């Protein structure tokens, strides 16, 4: 069936090319080796096809179609990444042997064919309108974005492309340096639709953004296996600019919940490039949903970590540097520290530009921490990612 779909896609691409669509994209392959017990191998192949067309100076269409296949080990038991003591306590409280829990907490990687983006943009003198599945970005943070209510960010690879969100986006410039944006991501009904409005202004040398958003927050209690929902209203601010020759940015959000306790999240960061070409970055993250000690991490906290990318701790520090080893080779080091449980994620990267359109990344994950801490639950790993643009 997937082969038939691929043939249909290729025929469609040829037909679209004949209609003068701009056709480009990339192929990506990643292979990784993890070291927990017996080494395990996983790989994926990803083909992204981009089709764009300008109908006039004010109307454009953009779309991205993605094919992705997985190889090697294709399923993980989430319980393997939770401290054994926490799993045992959970099993005891719900009256189920640990061995019987695995099936309900197994995640599988399935081959995918999906429409990543497909949207129509209309540019007029007094407004811009974008309709369809599109990428949405909010906030100035690098590793974390407290004001972004639409996306979940992978802090171990924060610059990797985000998936599109089905939405309507209206932008109204009110001056040469200011704009109001309104977005709605349509759900099954109005209550389940995510809405936001943003005011962007260049002020005193800084790009400043004020955000209000409303989203239906879904929560699962894994002890009762009951799902609940509540309204979440986000009030946020972000800025980016320069201070004393350093790049300087900040972002914060206060979340008002209809049933649970309100919480706040915030980041502040800086970066600098030395004359030698060495680039350094630092970002601090305050997570009002987090805990101050690893003994406070409950089973529900761990599951939210996997499903919603909600970090377990209260305070984090992200540190990084990048410098050239040779003309086309860069070495980077990224460290994420949970300041509460003292666990550390160390991610070294080597980026090699093989040609103008071919890039190779080789990177690793090294975990440091005690057996209850956040980052020490993941196995050390080594991966290589090859990307070819066309």
Shape designation: globular
Question: What structural category characterises the helix and strand content?
Answer: mainly beta
Query: What is the helix content?
Result: under 10%
Q: What is the chain-wise order of helices and strands?
A: HEEEEHEEEEEEEEEEEHEEEEE
User: Which stretches are poorly predicted, pLDDT < 50 over at least 5 residues?
Assistant: none
Distance between the termini: 26 Å
> Mean of the pLDDT scores?
93
How many strand segments? 20
Radius of gyration: 23 Å
Number of helices: 3
Question: How does the SSE layout of this entry go?
Answer:
Layout: H1 2-18, E1 22-35, E2 40-54, E3 59-72, E4 75-77, H2 84-94, E5 106-108, E6 112-123, E7 128-134, E8 165-175, E9 178-185, E10 194-203, E11 206-221, E12 226-243, E13 246-257, E14 263-273, E15 279-287, H3 299-308, E16 315-326, E17 329-338, E18 344-355, E19 358-368, E20 380-389
Antiparallel strand pairs: 1-2, 1-20, 2-3, 3-6, 4-5, 6-7, 7-8, 8-9, 9-10, 10-11, 11-12, 12-13, 13-14, 14-15, 15-16, 16-17, 17-18, 18-19, 19-20
Question: Could you describe the 3D structure shown?
Answer:
- There is one protein chain.
- With 390 residues, the protein is mostly beta strands.
- It has a domain at 274-390.
- It is built from three helices and 20 strands.
- The chain has helices spanning 2-18, 84-94, 299-308; strands spanning 22-35, 40-54, 59-72, 75-77, 106-108, 112-123, 128-134, 165-175, 178-185, 194-203, 206-221, 226-243, 246-257, 263-273, 279-287, 315-326, 329-338, 344-355, 358-368, 380-389.
- The strands form two sheets. The protein has an 18-stranded antiparallel β-barrel. A two-stranded antiparallel sheet has the order 4-5.
- A hairpin with a 4-residue loop joins strand 11 and strand 12.
- The longest helix has 17 residues, at 2-18.
- The chain is globular.
- The mean pLDDT is 93.
């Amino acid at each position: 069936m997937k082969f038939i779909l691929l043939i249909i896609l290729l025929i469609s691409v040829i037909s679209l090319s004949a209609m003068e669509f701009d056709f480009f994209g990339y192929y990506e392959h990643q292979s990784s080796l993890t070291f927990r017990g017996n080494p395990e191998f996983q790989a994926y192949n990803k083909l992204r096809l981009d089709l764009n067309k300008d109908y006039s100076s004010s109307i454009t269409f953009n779309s991205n179609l993605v094919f992705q296949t997985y190889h090697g080990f294709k399923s993980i038991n989430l319980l393997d990444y939770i401290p054994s003591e926490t799993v045992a306590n959970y099993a005891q409280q719900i009256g189920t042997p640990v061995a019987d829990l695995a099936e309900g907490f197994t995640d599988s990687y399935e081959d995918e064919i999906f429409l990543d983006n497909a949207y129509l943009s209309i540019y007029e003198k007094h407004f811009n309108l974008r309709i369809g599945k599109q990428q949405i970005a909010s906030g100035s943070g690098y590793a974390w974005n407290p004001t972004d209510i639409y996306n979940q960010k992978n802090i171990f690879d924060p610059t990797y492309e985000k998936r599109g969100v089905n939405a309507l986006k209206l932008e109204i410039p009110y001056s040469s340096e200011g704009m109001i944006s309104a977005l709605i991501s349509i759900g099954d009904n109005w209550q389940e639709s995510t809405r936001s409005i943003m005011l962007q202004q260049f002020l005193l040398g800084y790009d400043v953004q004020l955000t209000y958003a409303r989203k239906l927050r879904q929560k699962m209690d894994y002890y009762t296996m009951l799902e609940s929902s509540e309204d979440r209203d986000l009030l946020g601010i972000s800025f980016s600019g320069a201070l004393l020759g350093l790049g300087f940015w900040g972002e914060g959000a206060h979340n008002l919940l209809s049933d649970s306790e309100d919480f706040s999240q915030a980041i502040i960061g800086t970066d600098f490039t030395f004359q030698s070409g060495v680039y350094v970055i630092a970002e601090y993250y305050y997570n009002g949903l987090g805990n101050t000690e690893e003994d406070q991490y409950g089973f529900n906290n761990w599951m939210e970590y996997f499903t919603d990318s909600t970090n377990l701790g209260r305070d984090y520090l992200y540190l990084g540097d990048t410098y050239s080893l040779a003309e086309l080779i860069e070495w980077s080091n990224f460290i994420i520290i949970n300041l509460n449980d003292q666990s550390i994620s160390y991610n070294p990267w080597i980026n090699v530009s093989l040609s103008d359109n071919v890039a190779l990344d080789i990177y690793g994950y090294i975990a440091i921490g005690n057996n209850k801490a956040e980052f020490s639950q993941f196995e050390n790993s080594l991966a290589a990612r090859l990307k070819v643009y066309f």
